[in-house]
Each structure stands twice: as structure tokens, then as C-alpha cells.
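Need C-alpha cells for this chain, all 123 residues.
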Amino acid sequence: MDVVFNNCADHGFFKELHDRHRVHCPYIFFECKNYSADVGNPEIDQLTSRFSEKSGMFGVLACRTNANQALVQKRCRDIVLKNRGYMLVIDDTDMIAMLRYRAESNESAIDDHMDNLFRRLVL
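Here are the C-alpha cells for all 123 residues:
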């Protein structure tokens, strides 16, 4: 496990994740992969193995690139369908976009970006 954050959000995406979407997420798990190959089942399993009713059921896998987005998205949806939690995969493109929003002091755009990723996961 690379990073674990306490979810103390009082607004924004992580607050909505708990309140509106009813995702149990007192802790947010981040797994970071600094290689250019697409993430596979071992990386996904590494992150989802951290999920539990005590610690939370949400994590983010950050990677450099995600060439086969459809396959990775299917794997993430399978986790949801099997009630094993919720996992978003963000790549450099997502990170650069959110860093630009931050540089512009546009926090709501970051929340919108994360919400769009979550919507693609659950809809």
C-alpha cells in the first residue's frame, strides 16, 4: 500500500462519495504504479485486498498510462458488481488535468473530474 488518507472531507467528491453514494470510506487507499504497461489483475487485487468493512471500500490506482481503458474499466466494474468495493484508475492525463484545475484554484473542477470517473464506473 502506497498511501492511505483519512477521509475527513466536509465537502467535495470524497464527502459525496460517503453521503450521496453511500460508499463506506473512512480511509482512502492510493496505490501508485510508475510503469508504462497497463494495470492488470495483480495490481487491481493488490489494492482491493486492502478493502474491508472496518477500513473502507474505496481506492484509487494511479498509473502512468492506461492504453486499454475499456478492459481496465471492465475489471473495475466487476469489482463493484461482486460487492468487493470501488476502485478508480487515474493516469497521467487525469493527474495533469486535475493539477491544472488546482493551479487555477478551481477545486470544483477536480471534484467534477473525479465524479465523472466514478459515474463511468457505476453507470
